[in-house]
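Example 3.2
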Amino acid sequence: MSTRTLIIECGVAETRAALIENGETRRFWFGPARGDEAEDIAPRAGRRFAGRVRVIDRSLNAAFVDVGDGLDAYLPLNKTNQPHVTEGALIGVVVKSPPRQGKGAVLKYLDDVDIDREAPGRLAPFHDAAIEATIAIGEGVEEITIDDGKASAVLKASGVMANISYEQHSVALFEVYDAESVLETAFDRNAPLSGGGNLVIDEVQALTAIDVDTGALSASSPSRLREKIAIAAAYEAARQVCLRNIGGHIVIDFPSVSGKPASARFKEELHKAMARIDGAGASSFSKSGLFSFTAPHYAQSVQERFTDTAPAAPSSGRRFTLDWQAKSAIRSLEHRLRAAPRAVLHVRLGLSLHDYMKVCGTWFDRLRERYGARFDSVADNKIEERGFELSEQ
């Protein structure tokens, strides 16, 4: 019998959740700290915004709208909304598809919404972060484990149909359930396969390409080996799509599987693997043997959201964003303060991270409210500009 558990961590800087199915981490969710919900302006699918019409492009029959996230969102025009969408107007919109690869969200016009603000930004309702995590990835879970007593009470009062338990450990829930190590691998280009070989995953502008690299694997029966690797790759690819929150058009180059019986077995297992991706559809094999399908694009992938391009020669790589590093530093400090009630801690921050953290001073204030003034932080030019180091004084 399948068991599904949702774990939710409520930190001072962010709320994060992981869906655990039969002991295996399947999906992640990241949101604002509890109390900061109205400030979370990430254009996730289904969220409502007040948007300022920046420009109308008659050749595209569309408007480009500022919803407050720094990107021009795209609003198709039609006979119904066109009279209300004028340059400079503040209009109500809902996100149909979130930003992707540097392009803004795709919007739908709302004609029956009261805009209670004068600038672009998110509109109510604002769910408690713990409830939003449950709505986003917790459908059908039997158990919810959360590390905040007040959030546990809110979930119980909301009528969520699951066994809700409050647990606070000296280490984070993500570590207790081994979700932290899985999260670390969700940014790797390579994902190992059981039995050998690995997936090579590249998120590019128009699609996500997944190659199955068999490496130097060999066997007495090469055809049987290719079949086993292709089946393992199908299940791991489905898992990685969910873990990394990859949406849109996805293409997989599986090893060729020869023979009708073997091909039938592989396609049957592939069908089962694809069923693990909620909303997956439009699948097919090309004449050259490439398998492609689509997956819902509800929010940015973890790579898009938490990394940015890093200058490098001769080609560009990626690095964690300042926001990711700042929240990682706060989370590490919070966990150490909780695990060592008498410790006095010292945080050294790279210069760029230190400057960014000045804007997020409320996080430090919240830590002092919870754990007392048992820490300090300083800028240190000897540390990588986005890095941090935590030590006991």
